[in-house]
Predict the structure.
Amino acid sequence: MENEPLLMLPGPVPMPERVRYAMARQAINHRGAEFGRIYADCVRVLRSAFGTSHDLFVLSGSGTAAMEAAVANFGKGKKIACLVNGKFSERLLKIAQRYGDAVPVASPWGTPLDLRGLAKALEGGAGMVTMVHNETSVGLKNPAADVGRLCQKHDALFVMDGITSIGGDVVEADSWGVDVAVVGSQKCLAAPAGLSAVSVSSRAWEELVTPAPYYLDLAAYRKSAGNTPMETPYTPAVPLFLALREACLILEEEGLPARVARHVRMASSVRAAAAAWGLPLFPKVDGMHAYSNTATAITVPDGVADADLRSRIRRLGIEVAGGQDQLKGKIFRIGTMGAISAPEILATLAAVQCTLTALGHRPAGDGVAAAYEVLAG
Ligand SMILES: Cc1ncc(COP(=O)(O)O)c(C=O)c1O
């Protein structure tokens, strides 16, 4: 029997059967009570995953739609300091350039954020700061609480992309001082691609711009969410909401602390394998920055072509990700997000290890055994 490919990507990720089946049903009225309950379930669970008690809306659009909604609704015309150390923080910078006076505060990809540069930009009048919590492109977790403190000191709005951390790692949007946080459905939530969610603090509402964008008008989302039954302003992607609700219920059943602990264990096992192979992790961490618990970026060894490595692994039925843009061919990335656990990790690491050997690279040690120690311990 041919199995479906095992997606060990930093999104999309394999979806539990319950999530897939939830979509396979007759259309329902998105202005009816059942849809209202579905939306409310999503909001309840997502609030806990975001660590927020603020307004939260589900948008029909991928993570980038929520990123754009954050900047377009609250940053238009503002000086926006954009912390950049990877592809997705660069995307936030590009969005900010469309709507405001964007000030890049950039560090080389995969290296710590320039918090001194941020302080300077804030002293220079930046009224909004953008940051990616988990930079998926480089496998690095940025210090959200520290950035939040700086924003609060200077009374600037803090927009945090939690697209690959929310639902898989610890996120405390309210206590970190995050004003607008966003997540994507196809990442740690293990739902289908195509939805995102955005939380909005009361402080952010005070800075709502006019005119707001039309389709991504968050004030319109707030108004519709206050209706009985709860609604979205325009026709939502209902089948995806059905699936997201199921994914949220699974998260609730597992419990957020257990889910985060599982993600930490999975990523630790991948890091242990890389260390045993003698392959450096790509990001540079310090006391404030950490390796991602949802995507591990490993340096491709000299003499091995990344495209060969990944295509051979793909032929075994497993997909891992390559590097993006300037990191093409230099790193490969293993996602540890969503519903996966030990069997998928061990299969993936065995495939990587054997393929490295088949391509003529002799790993320093047994990465699968090292990962086993973490997973079994
Ligand atoms: C950190 C981060 N931000 C934003 C995005 C973009 O999200 P989407 O592809 O859902 O629009 C991604 C996607 O990989 C991501 O990892």
